[in-house]
Amino acid sequence: MNRRELCTALGAAAASPVVARLSADARWAAGRRAHARAQGRALAVLDPHQAETVRLIAEMIIPETDTPGAGAAHIPEFADLMLAEWSSEDDRTRFRAGLADVDARSHAAFGGDFVAGTDAQRAALLTALDAEAQAALRARAQAPPRSRERTLAEPFFQRLKALTVYGYYTSEVGARQELQYEAVPGSFDGCTDVRAARVGPGDF
Question: Where are the domains of the chain?
Fold first, then answer.
């Protein structure tokens, strides 16, 4: 599978409603630019505790095996930039509320924040969140089109998974070590309007 097929198959656009409107190649380019800009940038949406929670969850979604996991892809910094520049204020509020819910569930289940739990405790909590997210997505798919977007927001855990996967596979380690991708020029299309290629958060 090449990078274009991956960006399409992964549903990477779920990382942001704005990204959803981009082509697979533009999604890839947007992710690569986001990683470059996130390096050395101060957090703008997440606080340090929230960023650490994102890091731990991301590492459980894509753990290190014979290739680097999400921990090597700087997912908290990437997610923070995507939330700051590619998401609405409502999306940012829902994302932070989702992280607060993770800690609330952790306190109810084992008496502490998610980051303080054992691997087994965190895995059990994420398994439950994933099952709820899948059930919510099925309900969303079955809802009447007019009420789907208005009444059934995307589950938090689904959004975090999308950010993790999108961020990982557009990162240096994900692209070069997992996909073994080497940058080459894209296909030539003589009919393409070059103005359409300049895609960024300020264009929407």
Answer: 3-181
As a whole number, mean pLDDT of residues 141-154 equals 63
Angle between helices 156-169 and 75-86 (to 10 degrees): 110
* Residue 139: burial class (beta carbons within 10 Å; 0-12, 13-18, 19+): exposed
**Separation in Å, CA 6 to CA 10, 166, 204:** 6, 10, 24
* Among the listed residues 72, 97, 96, 86, the one whose alpha carbon sits nearest the alpha carbon of residue 37: 86
**Angle at the Cα of 151 (from 100 to 125), degrees rounded to 5?**
30
Model pLDDT, residue 17: 73
Token readout for 74 is 């700087």
The confidence score (pLDDT) of residue 130 equals 93
| Residues 96, 101, 106, 111, CA torsion sign | positive
Q: How far is CA 82 from the centre of its chain?
A: 8
Residue pair 109/124 in contact (Cβ under 8 Å)? The answer is yes
- pTM more than 0.70: yes
CA atoms within a 13 Å half-sphere pointing along the CA-CB vector of 194: 1
pLDDT digits (tens, 9 = 90+) for 133-144: 889 888 877 877
Tens digit of pLDDT for each residue in 69-120? 898 999 999 999 999 998 999 999 999 999 999 999 999 999 999 999 999 9
30: number of Cβ within 10 Å = 26
Provide the 3-class DSSP secondary structure of residue 203: helix
